[in-house]
Amino acid sequence: MSKFTKIVNLIIAFLFALSITSCGWKASEEEIKQLEETKAAALAAEKTFADKQAERSKLESDLKTKKDELAKLKSDRDKVLKRVAEMKTTESE
To answer: Coiled coil where (predicted)?
Structure first.
């Protein structure tokens, strides 16, 4: 077969396959309703996921702030304890 004949046969086969698949099954009302419910559930899950990610980000930020505050307070406590110890040693002399 020539190249032209192969191409024509391929195009005819493609058009035949397209015509068979395009005139087939249509979704019923129940299936459409189920798809819409599934889509709504997926959108709700995505929104919940985004909300939880935002909440997690905020909590991680709050945790970092609290850890920084704790480190500062520990540093202040250590300074005070050091001064108290110095005062006790100077009093005993």
So the answer is: 25-90
